[in-house]
Each structure stands twice: as structure tokens, then as C-alpha cells.
Amino acid sequence: MKTRSLHVQIRRRQQSGLTLIEMLVASTLLLLILLSLMLMFNQTQRAFRTGLGQNDIMETGRAAMDFIARDVEQMAAAYRWDITNAQVQLHSKVDPVIYTPPGGEDQTLFLQTFFFLRNQRDWEAMGYRVLNSSVHTDGLDVTNNIIVGALYSFRTNSSNLSSQHMRTFHGPTLTMVTSGTMRRLADGVVHFKVTMYDKNGRPFTNDMPPEVYLNDLFKGLHRMNLSGASVPASIDLELGILDPRALDQLRPLIADSLLPGRNEDAIRRFLTNNAGKIHIFRRQIPIRTAVR
Predict the structure, then answer these.
(1) Alpha carbon separation from 159 to 97, 122, 123, 162 (Å, rounded)
(2) What is the reported pLDDT for 48?
(3) Residues of the chain scoring pLDDT < 50
(4) Domain-wise residue ranges, the chain
């Protein structure tokens, strides 16, 4: 009888369920595992989105640089002193933004205009300008107080050369955009700088300092013109693009910055505080038609 009773007790213990404490421990472990998986999933998604954003910026920057390089390398001289072959000019009337990239030295963000001639079958006047990138097209004609904008290409051709082409390039932009004479290349542009070099590798400077800030004697007037037979042997091109997500945060300030001084300080602070989200592309472009 005792042996039988012992077997019954053992069988009952083997058939008994989990205790409340065991269930709580199992539930807690399961919850921790689920939370860990959710955190890993969120981090993976965040890294994936960041990677996509980085790829978009790299593709945009490379495509814009390739597009400009194809145009610039065919630059030609008009051999006339009344016609400008190439011109680089500081366009914006606000002081350049100075920022410090992570782990680097202070850098200056310039917004320049770049105009030049090309001759294939007909003469072509070409150029690049940074325009207001607000969602309102009426802001396209406000070009003198830009800190962040969109890079546009200008293109027009004619069998006869005229200084009117350059005046058109520097003129009102809204009609040129709507007519297709100017086309958008890249958004979120905070830096567009062109340095022209002669055949000896020296920069053309007009005896000015290579970088003239807008708050000095040459405020708003710093430009470099080449005419006659002069074309650069090469140019250094720099393009700075803001991260798309940072640009989305900045758009309300940009859209409300059409008047001089409006939101300028806030945009400056945003750029200096988000220096790691500014991506700089650089390329040296040889001019095929230059005399070596």
C-alpha cells in the first residue's frame, strides 16, 4: 500500500502545472526578449533610413557635379573684350556662414554665381545660380538674401554673341524658371564655390584676396571676369548640400525668409548646430579648350 501511495504522489507531482511564480518569471523573460527585439528592429530601421538618406545625398551630389563638369569642360573664349567668357561672383548679400564640421577646422559656406560660354555648333551661354528654395514660386526672384537654396542651371543658345546673355543670367529668374531656361539641379544647397586657375595652377584673383568676405570693402561686388582669349585651364568646384531631413526641419524658416534679415539668424544657428549634416562635394575640372 505504501509503495502504491508513493507512486500516486509522484504521478500527481509530474502532472501538476506551473506555479504562479514560475509563470511570472517566464512572462518577464518573454517580455524582455520582445522589448529587445523591438529595440533591435527600431535601430535597424533607423540605420536603414539614415543609409537611404545618405545614398540620396551622394547620388544628388555626384549627379550635379557630373552635369556641371560636362558643361564646364567645353568652355570657350569669344576673343572679344566686350564679351565675358567666364564670370564668378559672390551673389548673396548676406555674410557667409562659418561652421565647424565634426573633427575638422572652421569652414566657410559661399554662394556664388557662375557664368560661362560654350561653342559647339552655336554659341551657348550657360551658368549656375542658387535661388530661393521655398515652396512658393514667387520667392524665386528673391535671390540676394539666400543662405539655403536650390541650385539652378541656366542655358540659352544663339548664333550671335551678345553681352545681353549675361545680363539675362543675372536678371529676374521667375520667368526663366517657368520658361525652362533655368532648371533645378539640387535642393538644400548651402555652398556653391568656383575657383578658376590659369595654366600654371595659380588662381585668377584680379589682385584681390582669394576669398573676400561680404562685410569688407567689396561687399556684394566681388567678381572675377575673363574676356578676350582668356579661359581658365581648370576650375575647382565645391558643392555643399544639407541632409534632406534637416532641410525639412528648416523649410518653414526658409519659406518665411523672403524679406532681408527675416529668420537669417535662426537659419545660421541651425546650420552651425547641424554641421555634421552638411555634405561637401569637391571636384577639379580641366578645361579642354584652354591653351596649355
Answers:
(1) 41, 5, 6, 10
(2) 63
(3) 135-136, 138-139, 141-142, 207-221
(4) 61-286
pTM score of the predicted model: 0.76
Q: What is the bridge-based pairing of β-strands 97-99 and 234-242?
A: unpaired
Q: Which amino acid is at 68?
A: I
Q: Starting from the edge strand earliest in sequence, which strands make up the sheet with 123-132, in order?
A: 223-228, 80-90, 112-119, 123-132, 149-158, 182-197, 234-242, 278-286
Write out the three cell numbers for 217: 570693402
Residue 189 β-bridge partners: 149, 241
Which of 200, 259, 243 has its CA nearest to residue 57? 243
Longest CA pairwise span in the chain (Å): 124
CA distance 260 to 267: 13
DSSP, res 82:
E
CA atoms within 13 Å, Cβ hemisphere of 54: 7
